[in-house]
Amino acid sequence: MLYSPAPMHIPDGFLSTLVAVVLWILSAGVIAYALRRVGNDLGERQVPLMGVLAAAIFAGQMLNFTVAGGTSGHLLGAALAAILLGPWAAIIVMTTVVSIQALIFQDGGLLALGGNLFNMAVIGVAVAYFVYVSVQKAARGQRWGVFVGGFAAAWMSIVIAALACALELAFSGTSPANVAVPAMGGIHMLIGVGEGLITLGALAFLYAARRDLLHIGEAAPKGGRVVWVGGLVIALLLAVLSPLASAHPDGLEWVAEQQGFLEAAREPLYSIIPDYVFPGISNEALATIAAGILGTLLVFGVALGVAYLRRRQTADR
Amino acid sequence: MHIHFLDPYRAGNSPLHAADARLKFVLTLAFILTASLTPPAAWPVYILLLALILSIEILSGLGVGPVLKRSLLALPFVLAALPLVFTVEGQALFSLPLGAWTLTASVEGLARFVSVALKSWLSVQAAIVLAACTPFPELLQAMRAVGLPRLLVAMFGLTWRYLFVLADEALRLMRARAARSGAVSSTSLKAGGNVAWRAGVTGGMAGSLFLRAFERSDRIYVAMLSRGYDGEVRALPLPAFTAAHWLTLTAGLALLALLLGFGLLFWG
Hints:
heterodimer; A: 2 domains; two-stranded antiparallel sheet; 74% helix; B: mainly alpha; 2 domains
């Protein structure tokens, strides 16, 4: 029931180790900076506020509405978090949500968590913040700025995060860019409408009930400018990069080949023991069979051991 | 209806339940990393990794069946890797005529695809066992021990604590909506209103959930203040990591390194 509404949580195994590690490093850097900022700006009230709001976003993902023929629209929440909490706190809140989804509900992998954090907590929040603030500025504090900005921010954050996800899969050599980018982009342009409409509804409710929470006309939070620029750059980069990548999937393969230093690093391993074969296991099929037998023995051994212990425990009682 | 059934933790008294959470956490990550680094088509290594995780599932007393059932969760994502069968060049397996194009499947492509699916399946099983054998507070302790920022760990803990409260709240909102408006039991029936209206209603529910959470956080803050909270997140000291723990950790890592080395050497 708390499963991801959008097919955007990458499970383990789909990102190459190199891509996964690079994304981990990027996300960890941004999150560490966000933690520092939040610690400085929000003060002691931050922990309960952000913790409970993260739980609210988590629970809010259960809310759905029927679209047509058994499909339904859901909320992801990055845009809502960015609008209500400001960029830095939203990054922390989304980090919490995405991490718990991976740790507890296996929604997205643990090694792939770096990538999922980057897509949903960093890109999702930065793009949403950039779009929302820009539209608000254009609206000069009028009402429609909140609503149009909220809808556009939610839609853009979903679509851009999906494009990033597709590119990551392409870089990993898991999914060719000319398939992944149009497929992910296309699906999420639709899912994004659902996200946008729910965000719009939520903002309309809050506008009526607690306008003070929307911070209309207040000065931008400290460091907001950095996120605004970051969101702009990410949105532009991905909007340009992904069509390019899908038009020239060879380009990505070229990059992947340049990553060949992994291969190169492995080279010496072979030269140490050239033509070495396992005694008795010279052939791959034989090795597979041997592994199968060994594995079966291992599983049976453990099962027998556990059964034996259980019997003895019950006998003791 | 209460939402507590969502907690994946299953109580038990297996050696895995008793093991230190830090050990389980690090070894799970190492297992997933090993699966990720194993080269494609290194079938013996995949078989051994599968045997390892199946043994652990039996040892944990969770039962192989429930874990395997839950592990199907990541299955839909396999679609993303399906094009590999046709895009990787190699020995032709079969051809699919598709209008103007012909899709040619290759043996190498199929091997890459199956490898990705296997890696994913192995990893998700490891993650399931970790979550099912380790109470969340112990997992939080493990995360603190491996050096995650204290503020972040405190956030995880608070979110976890109130997740069930707010999920109950969300369920109540949904029940209220079902009682008052167009919930349709059959997908063939037309739902009430148009899509935008239904989305708007759901949005109002999300907004109301947010507002309730916001107000609840106020009360929680006041309650924390009255119990001596001063902005500093404090946690109990971690229990000692004994020599036996180190030994188990080293043995586990060595086993995984051995399997990985085996794979890299012969199939890398």
